[in-house]
Amino acid sequence: MGPPLTGHDGPVEAVTTALLDGRPVVITGSWDETARIWDLRGGTPLGRLAAGHSPVTAVATAVVEGRPVAVTGTDDGLVRIWDLHGKGILGRPLEHPFWDDGVDETGWVVTTVLDSRPIAVTSSDETLRVWDLDTGEQHDHPGNGALGAEWVTALAACTLQGRPVAVTGGGEGAVQVWDLATGQLIRTLTGHVGAVRAVATTVLEDRPLAVTGGEDCTVRVWDLLTGAPLGEPLADHTRPVRMVAIGTSEARPLAVTSGGDGPVRIWDLTAGPRLGDPVHGHTDSVGAVTTAVLEGRPVAVSGSDDGTVLMWDLHTGVPVGRPFTGHEEGAIQAVATTVLDGRPVGVTGGGSGTVWVWDLDTGAPLYQLAGHEGMVRAVTTAVVDGRAVAVTAGDDGTVQTWDLHARAPRGGPLPGHTAEAKAMATTVVDGRPVVLVGNEDCTVRMWDLRTGEQLDQSLRGHTAWVRAVAPATPAGRPVAVTGSRDATVRVWDLHTGEQLGRPFGTGLTGGLGAGWVSAMAIAVVEGAPVVIAGVPNDDTVWVWDLHTGELLGTPTVFPQPVRALSWHPGGALVVGFGWEVAVVEPHPQGLLRRP
């Protein structure tokens, strides 16, 4: 959601969220010896808290005398309270005692309320300390104010039968519940093998729960009233679980967990089994995106240089099914979808020179088409005389058509094409299904898909390699929009092959400068067609009015180069940038805002 929040100069050790003057913010602590405040809506920085000369290892928030505050812990053993409005420290730092061999690091900080007063609970070595945030004094408990505990490796706070409690994870596998008013241990929960690395709390049907993750690679759910585990351990992680957070979806409590194995997993705490598959992302550049409809819901399909194809629910952003990994060699450069014998299928091309056809419902490969020598750079689909057809182009300079029902070529390569092509699309002109192919000789050529005949309406005018082509039919008139390395975007009449109007990127229409177009889509915004282009040189996406060529708004900057675009008629634009896939919405003023 938006670009990364950048500004820290070292690893980010702690994160918490809060409301500040009615707006959601995130507060982060880092080894760069600062804590920072960010507006979650816009991603803009709101302030910087300089924590002296020590890394910030823990962050929490509270309200003290009506003021929102942040409470930070650092590895010099100090706990500081910050006024989030004035950005200054309130009172003097709260000091942890010294170890025999040095300063005791503040490992965890949580906040809650005790006797109507805000308190902070901090951990260090084998103790918990409770601090009154109004006065900065340590709460008086037996044993010099500290709660004796197993080595604390995780900490959370909640309310149990009306009294504030701390829930700790320990280095020997125990989960302990502590009464913060009396300092007494209420109960110990056992089950983890090895250290408990993460604790979070929630409420389910008026019963307080703890969710814990540990070195034993399991996630466990506990009833804090009885100390009993709820169900079997959740054991899908293959490495130690280091993080647990709690959220809600449609009033259901969810646990979100992650660890050393990489994926983030989401669990429905009302149902027991995990809610959806692990949230995997691509691990290399996304080079192709398209859309489809799967069981009535729109999905995005993305292909990457990591050799995988992933599907994503356009409404929720959740992965759908399992990654497709059938390509034997490296990058997937091209992805298209169609319907074959009543079922949605994907068609992909990549480094091996083969084209795979696979079932979108199951993720299972159906078959492969072999005919290209070298990388397959472009794939598109069409329906010709009621039959699903794929068109592919590759490094070998050929464009080939395939009957997906027969699993065979439709004749030989298209005549008259000998150059590498990456830009390709299908449309209908005068009732004929045609394919448009743009390549390095600066020309876009057109073939009749029924006959394989090259048509006379070649599109000539670009002065460099054509890298993107998108057809449309505004007001019933077939046109194509093309983008090139010559930093221009041009609109063409497909009846005549003539250019319509001036190229975008010249005069007052909005210049691309030295930018070249890597991807293109035609969308409809409030009933009007617009041209959307990705410019990888400066990581931007541009939007123009198709009829006038007027630049709409200012270009939107993405965190990484944009290599792929696809428009879904439901109003979503799918953008592939860097390793990521995002869904954005064209705004009437041309800006792209995230829904």
Largest sheet: 4 strands, antiparallel
* Approximate shape: elongated
Overall pLDDT, averaged? 86
Distance between the termini: 9 Å
Number of strands: 51
SS strand fraction: over 45%
Tally of contiguous helical segments? 0
Low-pLDDT runs of 5+ residues are 99-103, 142-146, 506-510
**Order of neighbouring strands in the sheet with most strands:** 1-2-3-4
Can you characterise this structure?
The protein is mainly beta. The chain has no helices and 51 strands. It has a 4-stranded antiparallel beta sheet with strand order 1-2-3-4, with no helix packed on it. Strands 5-6-7-8 form a 4-stranded antiparallel beta sheet, with no helix packed on it. The chain has a 4-stranded antiparallel beta sheet with strand order 11-12-13-14, with no helix packed on it. Mean pLDDT is 86; it is low at 99-103, 142-146 and 506-510.
Descriptive labels:
595 residues; mainly beta
Question: Summary?
Answer:
This protein has 595 residues and is an all-beta fold. Helix content is 0%, strand content 54%.
Write the layout of secondary structure elements.
Elements: E1 12-20, E2 23-30, E3 34-39, E4 45-50, E5 56-64, E6 67-74, E7 78-83, E8 94-95, E9 98-99, E10 102-103, E11 108-114, E12 117-124, E13 127-132, E14 146-148, E15 152-160, E16 163-170, E17 175-179, E18 185-189, E19 196-204, E20 207-214, E21 219-223, E22 241-249, E23 252-259, E24 264-268, E25 286-294, E26 297-304, E27 309-313, E28 332-340, E29 343-350, E30 354-359, E31 365-370, E32 376-384, E33 387-394, E34 399-403, E35 408-409, E36 421-429, E37 432-439, E38 443-448, E39 459-460, E40 466-472, E41 479-484, E42 489-493, E43 499-504, E44 519-525, E45 528-535, E46 540-545, E47 556-557, E48 562-568, E49 572-577, E50 580-586, E51 592-593
Antiparallel strand pairs: 1-2, 2-3, 3-4, 5-6, 6-7, 7-8, 9-10, 11-12, 12-13, 13-14, 15-16, 16-17, 17-18, 19-20, 20-21, 22-23, 23-24, 25-26, 26-27, 28-29, 29-30, 30-31, 32-33, 33-34, 34-35, 36-37, 37-38, 38-39, 40-41, 41-42, 42-43, 44-45, 45-46, 46-47, 48-49, 49-50, 50-51
